[in-house]
Here is the input.
Amino acid sequence: MRIETETLTLKDGRTLTLRTPDENDAQAFIDYMVKAAEDTHFLIRYPEEISPTLEKEKEIIMENAEADDAAWFSVFDGDKVVGNCSICRYRSHLKVKHRCVFAIAIDKEYWGCGLGEILMKKSIAKAKEMGFDQLELGVYEDNERARALYRKMGFEECGILPRAYKLKDGTYVGEVSMVRFL
Ligand SMILES: CC(C)(COP(=O)(O)OP(=O)(O)OC[C@H]1O[C@@H](n2cnc3c(N)ncnc32)[C@H](O)[C@@H]1OP(=O)(O)O)[C@@H](O)C(=O)NCCC(=O)NCCS
Here is the structure.
């Protein structure tokens, strides 16, 4: 699903563009995903696990733009992707089609300026508009910044899966499940 293109002004005065990515953004999108995976261990993949071909990435971007049960809110600083927030239906089976999965990652150079909050508010509004009953996510137990933002946006913590992640140094980290009823 496509979103409306908008100009965003951050708390520090930087001006960014919010829009749906298109095929021409595929390389910028891959670069952003690698950078975000290098910034912290809070995403599911290590940087070296992110290696789609340009063609595959274009395909994913266009599938998302055309889907009627998913939306990406991508943030650009010029041609560079500096953040993305996605919502998509969990599964289409009758018993679970009311559930929407949420994900977000922002380039570290753009943290702490209100961008996370802006993207979450837009995603919550869009998920409501699309008719979902709830937004769901899983977050690393040690990701205090994200957990604080999610709570501020009305998500409730509803359980922890112990040892959901195992880092390269052997450290296990639990995953907190969170839900935001719409
Ligand atoms: C989590 C993330 C999306 C937050 O984005 P952000 O743009 O920095 O967030 P904002 O500037 O909008 O901050 C919003 C709220 O986050 C919380 N927050 C911000 N900095 C914080 C910190 N250092 N410690 C704890 N909470 C913090 C606060 O509740 C803040 O609200 P406030 O400004 O009114 O105090 C961003 O840090 C990120 O992409 N992290 C890496 C990827 C990631 O962890 N994704 C989530 C995977 S589940």
In short: Residues 50 and 143 are 21 Å apart (CA to CA).
